[in-house]
Amino acid sequence: MLNEDIKTVAHDCGDCPIRHRAVCARCEADELERLEEIKYYRNFQAGQTIIWSGDRMDFVGSVVSGIATLTQTMEDGRTQMVGLLLPSDFVGRPGRDGSPYDVVATTDMVMCCFRKKPFEELMADTPHIAHRLLEMTLDELDAAREWMLVLGRKTAREKIASLLSIIARRDATLNLQTQQNSLVFDLPLTREAMADYLGLTLETVSRQISALKRDGVIELEGKRHVTVPDFSRLLDEAGDDSDGGMLS
Amino acid sequence: MLNEDIKTVAHDCGDCPIRHRAVCARCEADELERLEEIKYYRNFQAGQTIIWSGDRMDFVGSVVSGIATLTQTMEDGRTQMVGLLLPSDFVGRPGRDGSPYDVVATTDMVMCCFRKKPFEELMADTPHIAHRLLEMTLDELDAAREWMLVLGRKTAREKIASLLSIIARRDATLNLQTQQNSLVFDLPLTREAMADYLGLTLETVSRQISALKRDGVIELEGKRHVTVPDFSRLLDEAGDDSDGGMLS
DNA sequence: TCGCGCGCTTGATCTGGGTCAATGATGACC
DNA sequence: GGTCATCATTGACCCAGATCAAGCGCGCGA
To answer: What is this model's ipTM?
Structure first.
């Protein structure tokens, strides 16, 4: 699984989010070396299932580009998305063998993977990687719990606004382009995927997006390209009290 | 905060869940010593708020007895419970200062606390405590995500059945009394608290409990004492495909 | 260039659970 | 042992969002 470009990116932290996020802040040469040895890239096509629920996972890794979703499905077909993986997000559960949900690429993706067993050994030797993983897991837990409020208590309109503001926020921090106070981004999900995230039907998603557009909260170009003229207005619609660190 | 009984329980792992779960599996004398030094007990009364959302937390700890809830509240008063703390559950976020939600005791409680800063130092020195915390956080994340499916996709009846089966399961594993194939337990929550957990109203909770009783899925004695004659029937009602490790 | 499929929109109708309101149990406190 | 407060139940009605159904528009392959 080793390939030629490993050496060339050995100290290019921007390339590989896991290295960037988990290690580089306090990087030490031998750790980088060991990480490089167990690192490889994998490509996935849009629609491809990366891991099936219950499958054994023999790697951990992080998203370099593209988007994936974590979903749970009941026997009768009802599905709920329980996580959204954007570039720099971590995938995998050190110390656990199986995945409790399906991981599906919704766009073409590149992942930076590490073989699981050696990664865990490395983790055992280097406490700050373990520490970084705890940090990431706590972040995911916070996100999951915030989403529980969305699922349990918000109206359809608030749910849509919440999703849009999360995507806008992530997009802005990734691209560092909070340009002229308005936000522009492409929706990385179909209406159906949004519905699965929000606990709604795709028809309701469509209607509420139309409503937000009609009311001037968002502008749409085609079906996916969104511009948000006033982000605080969107947050208002989401029923959020905080700006999530977007506005100062 | 040190008190006299510390020495007497120094090696009684059953008494203090955090020590039992986080440390004792591979316990080493000096760690126990250091844990004892920063440990103290706190009592809370039913209804008392342990931590307000946004508050600084200067301790971590675990539940010895009683029940607490983690809740998030919107400005207009809508609230969603995002976690339920039963005996042996861990409270606190090593490395984080504030709490993102209210922690409220719903019964009288005893907690075993550790001052946060020294606990973090101990964690930095002893990798397997950090490892144990990662494990616990992953468990919480799994639970939160399973709950997202409940909140987003299940009907009111399924939600109630899901909650009952979770409580029954926890209760049984704690008390090790899977006696004569039927389960008996007391509901530790009011109808309103259940509603807040399930994203329902208390009226709907009441109606669905009555319906499950009418249909013979559960039996009620008073308002809180529940017996489940057939656990797999309850799991069926919950729409769950697995038995959660209860039945073999 | 056509048509065909997929993602999306919009309309009509239905229904699960919310809302509002009245009434019942239980137990603590005087 | 009566009063009051808290928790729970039940009924009547309503509405947000689900369901069912009909099109629309755009990209793609023949």
So the answer is: 0.88
